[in-house]
Specification:
Keywords: Signal. By secondary structure, the chain is mainly β. The protein is about 10% helix and about 60% strand. The longest helix is centred in the N-terminal third of the chain and has 30 residues. The radius of gyration is 20 Å and the shape is globular.
Amino acid sequence: MLNRLKHVHLPTRWLASGLLLGCLAIPFYSSAQTSGLGLWTGADADLRLTKKFVLNAKAQVRFSDNIQVTRAYLGELGFTYKLTKHWDISAYYRYTGRLKRNDEKTGYYYRPYHRFYGEVNYGTKLGNGIKLAYRLRYQNQFKDDNDATVSDKSYLRNKVEISYGNPSRFTPFVSADLFYRIDRIDGDNGFDQIRYKTGTNIEFNKIHSLDLFLFTDAPIGSSTDKAVPILGATYKVNVGFGKGKSKKNL
């Protein structure tokens, strides 16, 4: 009986080990071709008021230049409402302080940005522990400029994620998030980047879990941005009615 149990869990251990090794190997390969390594670290809290309604709060600090510069910090508040077994909708506000040069070019400061976004989410089980999730997001961002708030960028984002649920505490996942810009006055809108992400959720118990992940934003078309590997860690807390795993990632 003991041997049978070992064989049941062995593929899961191989999968988790392979994922972790991949997360360690890819940054070293990528950093040789890019301008540095980044890190996003933060916390995510869900308060489930009913079976259908969830309040959410997030906080995050983002580092760049081989994790030597605090590039941005942000806080986020929102809610999710479950429509059916497979569909839900969300709405959020995000405040971000982003590192920028001052007008005199003599120093730096954290410029305020305000983002509002709404989402439609779909999730289903494909069998054998495999889950498919799709998210459509509209986001509109503003920035503070000389005592006024002006429009910055607006996007439609399409994200597809595949995860593997299993008896272990590890739930590995991969995803792709396609960015479509829609606010350019000159009409030069379109796809400008795609975010590739891989990682794993580690469940400690029904309330506490940890997301470890690696991603990069690959430019599309005329974008001049460089693809930089970014490591991430998000501590998650889930409390209230009908507790379950959060589906939201920053």
